[in-house]
Amino acid sequence: MRIYKKILTGLAIALVAATGVILVYSHTNQQVKAGALDNVWGFAWSDLMGWVSFNNTSSGGGNSYGVNITDNGATGVFSGYAWSEHAGWITFNEADLGSCPTAPCRAWVDKSDGLVYGWGKILTTGDWVRLRGNGCNVSIDRNTGDFSGWAWGGETTGWLSFNAVNDSCPYPYKVQTSFKFNTKPTVSISSNPSLVNECTNPAYSFSWTFSDPDIGDTQSAYQVQVVKTSNATWVAGSGEFDETASSPSQTKEILLSPSPGLNQLGYNTAYQWRVRVWDSGGLASDWAYGNNFTTPLHIYPTPDFTWSPQVPFTNQTVQ
């Protein structure tokens, strides 16, 4: 049978940190927001540990704490500290988890499904907090950022619930995050730049392919850079190109000119180029680099002529 403590608005609790610092902490019914560097907030509940706070920015003086999830490609890695009113600091810092029971010794969330893995550690007791496996099933809703499920902190700390929907607690609580589960897109180049409209408006056409593991994500913008092979900075000048555009297009034509300015290409010049894209969630890909190429030696002649007679007869010679 679980025992629950009533949340008292404005109740000040003097907490002693593992370092011996006294931290004054106020637990209220109001939602507590994480700081700019801590994107996890809210409260979990344990019958043995009591309330576990995942951030503190409005009280505690200089002793603010919090838990943060950092994007690491396909995963989000946890760091920082939570606070238990009875057990003290709970760390999610990878540097503190080196001797965990099962590697890898860190806490992380899979961005594709929201499942949370790994460990936390209670610094005052040395107990490990298991987040997945052996009955532990902590997860995060990728749409709402709400945590759910249970973690296990050992016999001295018991089960830790991350959401009131997990049990019959009459008081609402949950842990939440504003971490973005968006996975960054990729861009690939499958063909070399091609010369088009040689005789009228000569230009080079560049193309790429957008790809994103998140279902429904599309390209929202691109950046194309074309600079001389001698340019190591990728800062465009005359006869070079750099454009960032909000567009789903995956092709770009750049004009050739005998006297090129900025965002035009010149004749008889060796170039290098690259492209990156953004998805509909505003996340950018890495750069994709295309093959180097050299433009034609000179401008093509313009086809322009007349004939005589203007209205020839059958079998008449025309000049």
Keywords:
319 residues, mainly beta, 12-stranded antiparallel β-sheet, 5-stranded antiparallel β-sheet, 29 strands, 40% strand, elongated, disordered N terminus
The tally of strands reads 29
Low-pLDDT sequence parts:
1-35, 58-62
Shape: elongated
Rg, rounded, reads 31 Å
**Largest sheet geometry:** 12 strands, antiparallel
Strand/helix succession: EEEEEEEEEEEEEEEEEEEEEEEEEEEEE
Proportion in β-strands: 35-45%
| Nearest-integer average pLDDT | 85
Class from secondary-structure proportions: mainly beta
Residue share in helices?
under 10%
User: Gap between N and C termini, in Å?
Assistant: 106 Å
Q: If helices are DSSP runs of H or I spanning 4 or more residues, what is the number of helices? A: 0
Structure description:
It contains no helices and 29 strands. With 319 residues, the protein is mainly beta. The strands form seven sheets. Strands 3, 4, 5, 6, 7, 8, 9, 10, 11, 16, 17 and 18 form a twelve-stranded antiparallel beta sheet that branches.
